[in-house]
Specification:
Radius of gyration: 24 Å
Shape: globular
Low-confidence stretches: 7-26
Order of helices and strands: HHEEHEEHEEHEE
Distance between the termini: 71 Å
Structural class: alpha/beta
Largest sheet: 4 strands, mixed
Number of helices: 5
Strand content: 15-25%
């Protein structure tokens, strides 16, 4: 039996060292990497310039893949969200399932009336302070969905009552979450 030459042994070691990092990249991300990706996705989405109170963008991070969900009023916001998430280091694939709401003057008028009704309530005015509003108002063909986070169950109920009180609204689905 013939022994391998030292040059072949060195090449074998070099090849294995070069191959290991490539195979490690395809493995599932560490907990720290997954948390970093999640944090960066959230940051990039809330920094979108045309992201407003009438838009709702959610996301799921699964390893190096990100799924975008929700509803937006402008098609450019859907494509902008996908573009900024694709640029995040470590993200390999973006599945953009964001729904673009149909253009409707009736829905636009409803959005304005709903905003005044919800954020004009004395008990809910404190939610109007931040740039990114915690109560999202989604209107699709007269049907309203409230998304976001409120401080307590009373605020959730007030938002629901105020939205239901707006004329022209066909239905209200209250998906507001009470923070713990």
């Amino acid at each position: 039996m013939k022994l391998k030459s030292p040059k072949l042994n060195a090449l074998a070691v070099l090849f294995s060292l070069l191959y290991l990092p490539a195979s490690a990249q395809t493995a599932a991300p560490s907990q720290k990497a997954a948390e970093r990706i999640q944090k960066e996705v959230r940051h990039e989405l809330v920094m979108l310039p045309y992201f407003g109170v009438f838009d709702n963008i959610a996301y799921k991070v699964d390893g190096y893949n990100v799924t975008l969900l929700g509803q937006v009023t402008k098609p450019t916001l859907k494509s902008d969200a996908e573009a900024v998430v694709k640029k995040i280091e470590g993200v390999e694939k973006v599945d953009n399932q964001i729904e673009v709401l149909p253009v409707s003057p009736m829905d636009d008028r409803l959005r304005q009336r709903l905003f005044r009704a919800v954020y004009g309530s004395p008990s809910l005015q404190r939610y109007d302070m931040p740039v990114i509003k915690p109560i999202r108002i989604i209107v699709n063909k007269g049907h309203v969905t409230l998304e976001g986070v409120v401080d307590n169950e009373a605020d959730k109920n007030v938002a629901n009552i105020r939205a239901n009180g707006v004329s022209g609204v066909f239905s209200v689905k209250n998906n507001l979450v009470v923070s713990k």
